[in-house]
């Protein structure tokens, strides 16, 4: 048996056994444990769980791939996702935790004293979560396709079974402690190969330092070498940018505010005992997140250099083993257009003979650098951990939105906790099946799919939450109209240019040169404008709601230890 497969089976198998064991140990026995782990998670553990929840397959698998192929333009993902988490931790999380509701739809429904507002929020939460979870299941399929030698579809099904087990039975309690373990696996899997490759290429043990260092045996830095190779083969210089400045701004801002509106991240701050603990766990999570995000640009640059130097202008019969292994998955394709047997990797589509799926960069990087088999198996386990941890959080949001916000709070208020828990588990089961379908039939690259989810969150939840916390005059009519307008215009724009009129998918046809990935910012602006205008021309919220909003912002409870 292939030594890489053996190591992959051992490491992935042990990690799965750990996750399932934790899920059994932490099995939820009540709705409170299922939804928010009973509100008893220590800040450090919650920080790790939040980081794992946050660093999805898009972060682990796809972000470095995007940066490797986009160069400087890929920095929008780094700036948007890290900046967005800071925005969430400072502006939203403590206030939402103080409000004391399990879910974002719960906050929207109570803050805007309306079952209609709650219903709109439920639809938005489910829609956003399904778009996001599609990328996670796709990531699982890619990992299993390569490392277990199965079809991507089979890999998605395996992931569905695992996540079904610990999400449906463990609930938030099981998910939280599983995510702590998954964070340890994924960060170790991300850093170890990065350190190895940095040492091999630059002699520096820290990838972040190696990223700006001189290559061994050369007088060029990593980025100078990369710029030279890129231009030599017809690509833009790696450190130049092709995206319009306005699009960079709008994509970055959409990712930032989309982060602050993602329901599966927000709910993590309800799992700690106090508001003070929510702030502590936010700080811990930021530290844990930075460990990966600060390493991604280095991994991207190292991978791109290795790709140019080990594949380009090489006889097909002489390519390394990793190339043909990934070729078997369909994620690497060689089309010998001139029948000379030499791989031509060029920017010009008429000449280029190589297609590389950008989602494989992190997973293939250890093989490209010829690292030991156990490192390759470790990366496989890390990729699965990243995808499953976020998928579980998203599935819980979906089940909670259906069972708690739709059925319990809207359709059947007298329902018992036991029946609500059963409906939550059934909803999670159906959600796993639907998520698996989208994982098999994804609407784009993992990170692109996730970027759409961020845009939708930016256009729907963020304005409703911000106005709900900081503008006591905001009423239900304004919030409902804003959410509907924001998510409707953003969805229409994304669908039109991504799926309907792909022939118009270029800057000159976009509104003000803004791409579908960045249009969530426009949707957010529309939401704010519509919400404020409608609220101005309709009745103000009741006095008790206005007093509630003031109480959320006044930190007097903190003096008492809250």
Give a written overview of the molecule.
This protein has 562 residues and is mainly alpha-helical. Mean pLDDT is 81; it is low at 557-562. It has 22 helices and two strands. α5 packs antiparallel against α13 (275-293) and α11 packs across α21. It has a single domain, classed as Sodium/glucose cotransporter (Up-down Bundle), CATH 1.20.1730. The radius of gyration is 24 Å and the shape is globular. A two-stranded antiparallel sheet has the order 1-2. The N and C termini lie far apart (57 Å). The longest helix has 51 residues, at 152-202.
Q: In a nutshell, what does this entry contain?
A:
This protein is 71% helix and 1% strand. The protein is mostly helical and 562 residues long.
Task: Please supply descriptive tags for the structure shown above.
two-stranded antiparallel ribbon, 562 residues, mainly alpha, globular, Sodium/glucose cotransporter, single chain, 71% helix
- Report how far apart the termini are: 57 Å
Mean pLDDT: 81
Helix content class: over 70%
Strand content: under 5%
Class from secondary-structure proportions: mainly alpha
- CATH architecture, by name, is Up-down Bundle
What is the ordering of alpha helices and beta strands? HHHHHHHHHHHHHHHEEHHHHHHH
Number of helices: 22
Q: Which parts are unreliable, with pLDDT below 50 for 5 consecutive residues or more? A: 557-562
- Domains, number: 1
CATH superfamily: Sodium/glucose cotransporter
Per DSSP E runs of 2 or more residues, the count of β-strands stands at: 2
The radius of gyration is 24 Å
How do the strands of the widest beta sheet line up side by side?
1-2
Q: Shape from CA axes? A: globular
Biggest sheet details: 2 strands, antiparallel
Question: Tell me, what is the CATH class?
Answer: Mainly Alpha
CATH topology: Sodium/glucose cotransporter
């Amino acid at each position: 048996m292939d030594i890489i497969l053996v190591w992959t089976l051992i490491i992935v198998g042990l990690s799965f056994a750990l996750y399932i064991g934790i899920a059994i140990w932490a099995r939820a026995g009540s709705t409170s444990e299922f939804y928010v782990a009973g509100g008893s998670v220590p800040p450090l553990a919650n920080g790790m769980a939040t980081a794992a929840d946050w660093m999805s397959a898009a972060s682990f698998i796809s972000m470095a791939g995007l940066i490797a192929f986009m160069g400087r333009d890929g920095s929008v993902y780094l700036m948007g996702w890290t900046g967005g988490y800071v925005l969430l931790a400072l502006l939203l999380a403590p206030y939402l935790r103080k409000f004391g509701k399990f879910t974002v739809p719960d906050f929207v429904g109570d803050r805007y004293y309306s079952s209609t507002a709650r219903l709109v929020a439920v639809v938005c939460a489910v829609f956003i979560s399904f778009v996001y979870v599609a990328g996670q299941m796709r990531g699982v399929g890619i990992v299993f396709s390569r490392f277990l030698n199965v079809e991507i579809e089979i890999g998605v099904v395996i992931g569905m079974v695992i996540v079904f087990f610990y999400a449906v039975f463990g609930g938030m309690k099981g998910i939280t402690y599983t995510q702590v373990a998954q964070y340890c696996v994924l960060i170790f899997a991300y850093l170890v190969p990065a350190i190895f490759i940095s040492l091999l290429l630059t002699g520096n043990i820290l990838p972040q330092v190696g990223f700006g260092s001189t290559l061994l045996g050369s007088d060029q830095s990593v980025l100078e070498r990369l710029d030279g190779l890129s231009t030599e083969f017809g690509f833009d210089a790696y450190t130049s940018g092709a995206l319009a400045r306005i699009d960079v701004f709008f994509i970055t801002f959409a990712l930032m505010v989309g982060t602050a509106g993602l329901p599966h991240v927000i709910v993590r701050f309800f799992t700690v005992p106090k508001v003070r603990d929510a702030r502590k766990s936010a700080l811990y999570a930021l530290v844990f997140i930075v460990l990966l995000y600060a390493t991604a640009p280095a991994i991207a640059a190292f991978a791109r250099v290795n790709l140019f130097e080990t594949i380009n202008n090489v006889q097909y019969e002489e390519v390394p083993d990793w190339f043909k292994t990934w070729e078997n998955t369909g994620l690497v394709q060689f089309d010998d257009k001139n029948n000379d047997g030499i791989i031509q990797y060029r920017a010009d589509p008429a000449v280029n003979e190589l297609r590389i799926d950008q989602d494989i960069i992190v997973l293939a990087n250890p093989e490209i650098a010829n690292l030991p088999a156990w490192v390759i198996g470790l990366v496989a386990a890390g990729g699965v951990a990243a995808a499953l941890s976020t998928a579980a959080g998203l599935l819980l949001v979906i089940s909670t939105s259906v069972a708690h916000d739709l059925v319990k709070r809207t359709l059947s208020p007298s329902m018992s906790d036991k029946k609500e828990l059963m409906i939550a588990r059934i909803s999670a089961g159906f959600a796993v099946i639907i998520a698996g379908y989208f994982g098999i039939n994804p609407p784009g690259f993992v990170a692109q799919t996730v970027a759409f989810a961020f845009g939708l969150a930016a256009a729907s939840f963020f304005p409703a939450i911000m106005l709900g916390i900081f503008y006591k005059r905001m009423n239900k009519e304004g919030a409902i109209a804003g959410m509907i307008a924001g998510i409707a215009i953003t969805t229409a724009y994304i669908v039109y240019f991504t799926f309907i009129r792909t022939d118009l998918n270029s800057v000159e046809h976009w509104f003000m040169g803004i791409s579908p990935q960045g249009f969530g910012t426009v949707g957010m602006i529309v939401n704010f404008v519509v919400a404020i205008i409608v609220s101005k021309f309709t009745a103000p919220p009741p006095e008790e709601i206005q007093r509630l909003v003031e109480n959320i912002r006044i930190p007097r409870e903190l003096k008492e230890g809250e």
